[in-house]
Design a protein that fits this description.
This protein has helices at residues 6-22, 26-38, 42-61, 90-102, 151-154, 168-178, 197-207, 214-220, 225-238, 324-327, 347-358, 398-407, 421-429, 442-446, 486-505; strands spanning 4-5, 71-79, 84-85, 131-137, 142-149, 158-162, 187-195, 253-263, 268-275, 281-286, 315-318, 335-344, 371-373, 412-415, 433-436, 449-456, 465-479. The chain is of the alpha/beta class. It folds into three domains: 1-149 and 280-304, no CATH class; 151-277, 60s Ribosomal Protein L30, Chain: A (2-Layer Sandwich), CATH 3.30.1330; 315-490, Alpha-Beta Barrel (fumarase). α12 runs parallel beside α13.
């Protein structure tokens, strides 16, 4: 066998990461499209429609489907007889590929990695280092599986050590019920059962690489107890009524994947890792014949869906003339179209604002009467005002909500997923509001952004504060001025409907 050239290895990693930034796996698109067709909840159906339209736009434009282009996980299997022409570590080759991909001027990907996880948390600016797992296997090639895992879904990973007599299914259902919508459903749940604590979590992530086949499994029936467990979990999780984006509906997961390994007789380690709507992974093999090649999926895999942003049911909002009296009229689940100037800010910016307030320092931005969008956008290319700019998980800003509303005069916030009780109480107390954009629709949202201007904290990179000028930016009222939450009302209603329907057919 010919030796694998170092640059072929590096370029293949870079090309693969670019590829998965804008192409969903075809199996996910097919299953999400089928779920969209089955969905009866209008809000969930609209959310899935936006994800599907956004996915097709990303594929056509070769721009990231989600602004969170993820931490790179690399699983490298090196054949015993493989020869790689390099004097560098495999991890260094992977990281060089990551660097090339994320700094590609034609499609720059957002750098999200911070070097010091505890203290300074300074961004590495090129999304390195990756998380690399290596193994030695029979053969003379090198097989690499890459995953770009977003923070919203990764933050919802869970682990437990059950007693051998405990029910894995019951623990999984209870756990998923507590995850909220920050992991951007509908997606998948990956499970690893057995081995050791670290192996269970690793298997849970590797399970997410398996082909999505739940609808085929439901049609033919289970051929093993593992498949029976997957089917049970798929049905029980969807019966929770969480639905797309946590708005309430029939589909929360399109599949449940499972890997197992022998374990100690006294143990039952269980790892759970959700996969969000930005389901980005790919596997390729290098055999010395040059860099890997990646065939684009057919555009026929995407359903033809047209969104109407100017629907008569949506309320247009002038952000520059917004009043508390207008906000008080908004109701959970109502669709709004935002127009005017919108500020941005997320974790690091909120922490710096809080520190400046504590020291009595003036803020560089006046938030009074304004709306803030929790976002860390991708860098713009060409004539874009901004790159893909979908929302980030709002619960991370919950602890800053009272400070922002009480001390800066902020009127409302835009993010994704639910808010905690602390934030909801602050919203009601200050007669504010929380709005959501659809997670996984970064390209679609960015089309509504006409201009972007850096206004503060440039050193924070993608977490700097910008002022966006938006035109008909679609959002949904998630928490109104009275503290009513669509993320509580919607799932509760759909759980009741699903339970009643099952009882009627029992």
């Amino acid at each position: 066998m010919a030796a694998i050239r170092e640059d072929d290895f590096v370029q293949s990693v870079a090309d693969a990461l670019q590829f998965i930034s804008y192409y969903h796996p075809a199996d996910y698109i097919r299953h999400l499209a089928a779920a969209h067709e089955r969905e009866e909840s209008a809000a969930a159906r609209e959310a899935m429609a936006q994800i599907l339209v956004n996915s097709r736009m990303a594929a056509l434009g070769h721009r990231p489907m989600c602004q969170d282009t993820g931490v790179v996980n690399a699983f490298v299997q090196v054949g015993l007889a493989a020869r790689i022409e390099t004097g560098r570590r495999l991890e260094d080759l992977v990281n060089e590929g990551v660097r090339r991909a994320y700094l590609d001027p034609d499609n720059p990907l957002r750098a999200s990695i911070v070097a010091d996880p505890l203290f300074s948390r300074n961004n590495t600016r090129d999304n390195t280092p990756a998380v690399v797992h290596t193994s030695v296997v029979p053969g003379d090639g090198v097989t690499i599986t890459l995953m770009a895992k977003g923070g919203g879904s990764e933050n919802k990973a869970r682990f437990t050590m059950l007693n051998p007599s405990d029910s894995v299914a019951d623990w999984v259902v209870r756990t998923v019920e507590t995850l909220g919508a920050g992991w951007c459903p509908p997606g998948m749940i990956g499970l690893g059962v057995g081995g050791s604590a670290d192996m269970a979590m690793l298997m849970a992530k590797q399970a997410l690489f398996e082909p999505i086949d739940m609808q085929d499994l439901l049609a033919r029936g289970p051929a093993s107890r593992e498949e029976e467990l997957r089917m049970e979990l798929y049905q029980r999780i969807n019966a929770l009524g969480i639905g797309a984006q946590g708005l309430g509906g029939l589909t929360t997961v399109v599949d449940v994947k499972l890997k197992t390994h022998p374990t100690h007789a006294a143990s039952m380690p269980v790892g759970l890792i959700p996969q969000c709507a930005a389901n980005r992974h790919i596997t390729f093999t290098l055999n010395g014949e040059g860099p890997a090649e990646f065939a684009p999926p057919s555009l026929d895999d995407w359903p033809q869906i047209t969104l109407d942003r100017t629907a008569h049911t949506a309320r247009r909002v002038d952000l520059e003339g917004l009043t508390r009296e207008e906000i008080a009229q908004w109701r959970p689940g109502e669709k709004l179209l935002l127009n005017g100037k919108l500020l941005t800010g997320r974790d690091a910016a909120h922490k710096r604002i809080a520190d400046m307030r504590a020291r009595g320092e003036p803020l560089p931005v006046d938030f009074a009467g304004r709306v803030i969008y929790y976002v860390g956008p991708v860098d713009a290319v060409g004539d874009e005002a901004v790159g893909p700019a979908g929302p980030t998980t709002a619960t991370r800003m919950d602890k800053f909500t009272e400070m922002m509303l009480a001390e800066t005069g902020l009127f409302a916030m835009v993010g994704k997923a639910e808010r905690g009780q602390e934030a909801i109480d602050a919203i009601a107390r200050h007669r504010a509001a929380y709005l959501i954009a659809v997670g996984g629709s970064a390209v679609l949202v960015s089309q509504a952004i006409r201009h972007a201007r850096l206004v503060a904290f440039e050193d924070l990179g993608m977490e700097a504060i910008y002022e966006f000028t938006v035109e008909d930016m679609p959002v949904t009222v998630a928490v109104d001025a009275r503290g009513q939450s669509v993320h509580r009302l919607g799932p509760a209603e759909w759980r009741r409907r699903i339970a009643e329907r099952r009882a009627a057919t029992a």
